[in-house]
Design a protein that fits this description.
This protein is an alpha+beta fold and 225 residues long. It folds into 2 domains: 1-147, Beta Polymerase, domain 2 (2-Layer Sandwich); 148-225. Helix content is 40%, strand content 20%. The strands form 2 sheets. Strands 1, 2, 3, 4, 5, 6 and 7 form a 7-stranded mixed β-sheet that branches. It has a two-stranded antiparallel ribbon with strand order 8-9. Strand 6 and strand 7 form a beta hairpin. Helix 4 packs antiparallel against helix 5 (166-183). The N and C termini lie far apart (49 Å).
Length: 225
Amino acid sequence: MPDDVEVFTSILKVLEDVGILSDIVIIGGWAQHLYRRYFNDPPELSALRTTDIDILFARPPGIIPKKNLEETLEPLGFKRSFTADGSTKFISREVEIEFLIPDRGRGDAGPYHIKELSISAQSLRLVNMLTIAPVEVQYNQYVVKVPDPIRFFFHKLLVSQRRDKENKREKDRITAFELASLLCQIPQWRELIPSRFTELSKKQRSLVSSLLTENNNLEVIALLT
């Protein structure tokens, strides 16, 4: 089986060849891998990855592809498939690629058709914050966007409360608290935590504060009070 990092890199090449790499944000487990590169392999971040590659589009996507995405993925062994809600994913023996997009609130749970790519992205709550001012990571010859790490930290805490499975809930919180530990040690990121916190709704701020207290994360709590 090919190395998972090798497979990930080959998919970045496809996204670059299709002409959409600069228009998407990598979220999920592979964001953790990219943060390790961005922050020069810090010990606070574990080598946490997943077989899924989650690709987030802004809404509307505003993309102008140069090639057909499905045809460009086919030589890598990918076949078109569908998630439970009917949105598109591409599957190979090694990995699944899923496409995500922010929803527009209550009642907007259906897939969002991206006609330029002939795919339908899954509409999700809470991901809009991840499209705001993403950071760019130099990854080999590619420039890859990942969410602002503070917003990703808050997002992971909020999403953890929506998980049905305890192992996924715990994984989200581990990712969040590892990032928090790292960001508190970097002055330019540490000073941004309070302002990012104020972007959240009152309900979201309350939930984040509760989870930080539950985890006894005194350093972040001190910044928010």
